[in-house]
Amino acid sequence: xxxxxxxxSQAGVKLDxxxxxxxxxxxxxxxxxxxxxxxxxSHLTGRLRRVGEQVVVEAxxxxxxxxxxxxxxxxxxMEVPVKFMVTLQPAPAKARQLPSExxxxxEDLDEIFYHDGVLDLRDVLRExxxxxxxxxxxxxxxxxxxCPTCGANLNREQCSCQEGIVDPRWLALKSxxxx
Length: 179
Ligand SMILES: [Zn+2]
Ligand SMILES: [Zn+2]
Description:
Elements: E1 2-4, E2 13-19, H1 21-29, E3 37-38, E4 42-51, E5 54-68, E6 75-90, H2 100-108, E7 112-114, E8 118-120, H3 121-132, H4 168-178
The structure holds zinc ion (ZN) (2 copies).
């Protein structure tokens, strides 16, 4: 998935790239490990366009993932759509050494660069996939979660702690009243 920027015509290049399962696995378990596990290969569709020296990437894919529910901790399968549009700039030439303050300023701009006239789409995609992941994946909208007292999965069983439970805020009020 490397493209020579010079080869990208003004009209653009259509993308239809396979995303192998082993590559996706590496994305989720690599430098920034996540609790997500890809279940199948996928493919990326979209378009590359060139605007002067900039390259605009518009692309999307759908990923079949498995992760533990943030509420009941049970593993479940989900489909996560990834859709993005980013603009890449040519990296500033090394020969033209920048003063250090200016270099800092460049980083602040949060720009994405391609190097030596070659755009590596996998680098872009890796970041966009991570950004698309749900922060708190939930197995269903009405997941009951775990009992805070005994840890029972309330989606599957009703534990006996329920009746005795008093909201700790009420407990605090109670003791306040009696004193
Ligand atoms: Zn759940
Ligand atoms: Zn319980």
